[in-house]
Write a structure and sequence with these properties.
By secondary structure, the chain is an alpha+beta fold. Helices cover 52% and strands 13% of the residues. The chain has 10 helices and 7 strands. It has a 4-stranded mixed beta sheet. Strands 4-5-7 form a 3-stranded antiparallel beta sheet. Helix 5 runs antiparallel to helix 8 and helix 9 runs antiparallel to helix 10. The longest helix is centred in the middle third of the chain and has 24 residues. It is globular and about 60 Å long.
Length: 241
C-alpha cells in the first residue's frame, strides 16, 4: 500500500528477508489476502513453527488483535497453537459482526509436519496427475479442477483449495496427499464449504499467468514435478482440448 509502484513482495523476496532477519519464529502470520498456500508454507517452514493465513481474500477490517494480545499479555506461556486458534476465532467473530456475509477463512498450519510429510506426496500426486493428463484422462482432471473451491474467483487468480482438488481427482496419490494436508492443518476457521485450510495455484480459466507462476515456483525451488503438471494441463487447455 505504501509502495504500490514496486508491487507486492515475491515469495522469494519474503524468504530472503526472513533469512536476513536470522530469527526462527513461533509463528509467521499474514494479516493479508490469499496467503494460506502450499507455496507460502514451504517458504515459511524454514523460519517458523506455524503459518497462520487466509485462503480467501480478507475483509478490510483484517485481524482483531485485542483479544488474543490481551490474553498473551496475561499469560506469555500460551502454547503457539492456542494463540493461533485465538487469532482465527477472534478474526472470524469480528468479521461475522462487522462484515456480515463476507467470506472468511483462517488456518493454522504445522510447518514442521508439512515439510516432513507433504513434499514426497506432492511429487507423487503431481506425477500421477501428469500421467492422467498425458494419457487421455485430461477430462477427468479438468472436471475436478472446474468444480474445485476457488478463492478470489472473480479475479481469476487460479488459487484453489488443494485438499478439495485432491479429493476430486481421487487417485491413490491424491488421497495420500489430502490425508497429509489434513493432518498438517491444526486449526481451520471458515464460513465457506470445501475450504480446508491450504490452497495452491492451478490454472484453469486463464492461462496467461502460467509462465509467471512457474517462474515464481522455480524461484522458491518448488517441486518441479508440479510445475510440469500444470504446464501439461495448460498446454492441452490452450490447444482447445
Amino acid at each position: 500500500e505504501k509502495y504500490s509502484r514496486s508491487g507486492s513482495m515475491s515469495l522469494a523476496g519474503i524468504n530472503q528477508a526472513l533469512n536476513n532477519a536470522g530469527v526462527t519464529f513461533d509463528f509467521i502470520g499474514f494479516d493479508a489476502c490469499l496467503m494460506a498456500t502450499v507455496e507460502t508454507a514451504l517458504v515459511a517452514e524454514q523460519h517458523a513453527d506455524y503459518l497462520i493465513g487466509s485462503e480467501e481474500t480478507e475483509p478490510g477490517i483484517g485481524w482483531y488483535y485485542t483479544d488474543w494480545l490481551t490474553n498473551l499479555s496475561a499469560n506469555s506461556s500460551l502454547p503457539t497453537l492456542e494463540i493461533g486458534k485465538q487469532i482465527a476465532d477472534s478474526f472470524s467473530n469480528a468479521c461475522a459482526t462487522t462484515c456480515y456475509g463476507q467470506d472468511t477463512t483462517l488456518s493454522v498450519i504445522d510447518l514442521a509436519e508439512l515439510a516432513y510429510t507433504v513434499p514426497s506426496k506432492m511429487t507423487a500426486f503431481a506425477r500421477s496427475t501428469t500421467d492422467m493428463i498425458q494419457n487421455s484422462q485430461y477430462q477427468t482432471v479438468s472436471n475436478a479442477r472446474s468444480g474445485v473451491r476457488q478463492f478470489a474467483a472473480s479475479s481469476r487468480l487460479n488459487q484453489v483449495d488443494l485438499v478439495d482438488l485432491a479429493d476430486r481427482i481421487n487417485t491413490t496419490e491424491a488421497k495420500a496427499l489430502a490425508a497429509a494436508l489434513r493432518s498438517c492443518i491444526k486449526y481451520n476457521k471458515s464460513n465457506i464449504s470445501r475450504a480446508y485450510g491450504v490452497s495452491i495455484y492451478f490454472p484453469y480459466e486463464s492461462m496467461s499467468s502460467v509462465s509467471t507462476a512457474t517462474s515464481m515456483l522455480n524461484a522458491i525451488s518448488f517441486d518441479s514435478s508440479y510445475t510440469k503438471c500444470i504446464r501439461s494441463f495448460a498446454s492441452l487447455a490452450a490447444s482447445g482440448q
